[in-house]
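Weekly puzzle thread! Below is a chain. First person to post its structure in token form gets bragging rights.
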Amino acid sequence: MAHLFRSSLATLLLAVSLVAQTGDPQPDANGIYHTGNGIGIPQCIYKAVPETTEEARKRKTSGIALVRIVVEPDGTVGSAEIIKSVAEAYKNKDDHDAALTLDAKAVEAARQYRFEPTIVKGKPVALELKIEISFQFT
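Winning reply:
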């Protein structure tokens, strides 16, 4: 009897553990979902090409900005903010200042992106993502 109880308890604990690992996706306090826990990255259906600035063009500034976005339930981008500036790669003040001007252009481009809606429990939801916006000179 004790062996059966221990075996059942072990099975129950394993089941609880699996539910905790693959549980129901839940939004954060702002009602926004995050990738993971069964939520993947939605397909990007439109990616805007970022414009550059005159300052960056003159200094041939290139690099990548990391932008945090919220994809709205309809697939449009609601909020967008820089979390890593192109300027972080530049030590020279003039290059750094030119690279800083690209941050606004990265946010502008990110807001034009479009995604397939993220579906949770049969409904489209808002989802936070991090995307890279690249500035290249050839």
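Puzzle host: Confirmed. Bonus trivia for everyone else. The domain at 25-135 is CATH 3.30.2420.10 (TolA/TonB C-terminal domain).
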